[in-house]
Design brief:
alpha+beta, two-stranded antiparallel sheet, elongated, Rab3GAP1_conserved
Length: 354
């Protein structure tokens, strides 16, 4: 049994225009290769009923009425689509409602009609059952002893009167992929994108750039990390990546990025503190271990080396030169080392009431 695969089918594309043979732009599909059986079948058909757009035989399946080989048609590739475009089309489909007309419009734009046109062009004289055996094999119920599949029948949902599949099959003309309008028009999509960028507000632009900005911040932070940092902030970085992945799918909700920014700030603060301490304690034995103890809040005074010098700083507000003067800052600095004693003062006075 031959099934329908993504590599041979077109994607979801909202298109309310009729795909006729008069369209200016068509999908460039390769021609099918010749075969002896196909040549014989071509000679028996009228010129306007020749098969077009065949990719390869669909296993050993044969058409239910004519007995000819069933072929998989050449189909257009999935059209690339951004998240905002997907969301836009989802909103349009939801707005169609649940009545019969809305269901028909949805069926028309889910790729079903396009596939039916492909299958009809590749297999002249085929029926809905032939199409179902290729496109949706689970909707074809057949006897296990029959490998050809000709003794089977459509599933229950396919036999409902006036169902969408039957209506699409009866209302579609066989048109090969190379004669259909392209599902993805890069020129039109580029013009639409440029118009969207030209009309964006600054706040909307920042929202769209938020995933890339936070991703760049995490990437830069990882570049600055050292192996000694991973035990302390490795889990926080993983949590930031997980939240960023979830926030990027949160329908442009800027509040979803608050937790990501806080985690990145915490990790950056840790890295800066460790670097600052490592620079100040350069030359201390077992410096890295000592820095980790300081950052972790563990008492480590007994490990301190003897000081090279001591500094004392006294800062006080004082009224100078008189009691009616405003209180101004005064600073006294004292530095004592093994062979040096230095004392300096920075004094200020009120020049208005002096």
């Amino acid at each position: 049994m031959c099934g329908h695969t993504d590599s041979q089918t077109d994607g979801f594309c909202l298109n309310t225009e009729d795909e006729t043979e008069d369209d200016d732009e068509f999908f460039d599909a390769p021609d099918e290769g010749p075969s002896e059986e196909a040549d014989c079948a071509r000679q028996q058909r009228l010129p306007w009923n020749q098969p077009e757009g065949r990719l390869k035989p669909c296993g050993s399946l044969r058409l239910l009425e004519t007995g000819e080989r069933l072929y998989i048609p050449v189909t257009q590739d999935v059209a690339p689509m951004t998240e905002d475009r997907l969301q836009e089309q989802s909103e349009v489909l939801v707005s169609l409602g649940t009545d019969s007309e809305g269901c028909q419009l949805r069926a028309r734009n889910d790729g079903r009609v396009t596939h039916i046109r492909h299958g009809g062009a590749a297999n002249p004289g085929s029926t809905l059952g032939d199409f179902v055996r290729w496109y949706s094999p689970r909707d074809w119920i057949q006897e296990e002893s029959d490998d050809s599949g000709k003794s089977g029948a459509l599933s229950a949902r396919m036999q409902i009167a006036d169902n969408l599949w039957l209506e699409a099959w009866s209302g579609s003309k066989p048109v090969p992929a190379r004669r259909q309008r392209r599902l993805f028009d890069e020129t039109r999509e580029a013009e639409r994108l440029f118009h969207q960028l030209a009309t964006l507000r600054p706040a909307q632009l920042v929202q769209m750039l938020s995933p890339m900005i936070y991703h760049a911040a995490i990437y830069r932070l990882v570049e600055e990390l050292e192996p000694v940092d991973l035990p302390a902030i490795g889990q926080q970085l993983e949590e930031a990546v997980r939240r960023l992945h979830s926030a990027a799918k949160a329908d442009w909700d800027d509040k979803a990025y608050d937790g990501v920014g806080q985690l990145i700030a915490t990790c950056e603060h840790y890295v800066l503190r460790r670097r600052s301490l490592a620079l100040k304690l350069d030359g201390v034995p077992e410096k890295d271990k000592f820095v980790q103890l300081l950052i972790g809040g563990v008492e480590a005074d007994q490990r301190l080396p003897p000081p090279a010098s001591k500094e004392y700083i006294l800062r006080v507000p004082c009224r100078r030169p008189g009691a009616a003067s405003r209180p101004l800052p005064q600073r006294l600095h004292c530095r004592v080392s093994e062979d040096t004693f230095r004392l300096s003062a920075s004094l200020s006075q009120d020049s208005v009431f002096s």
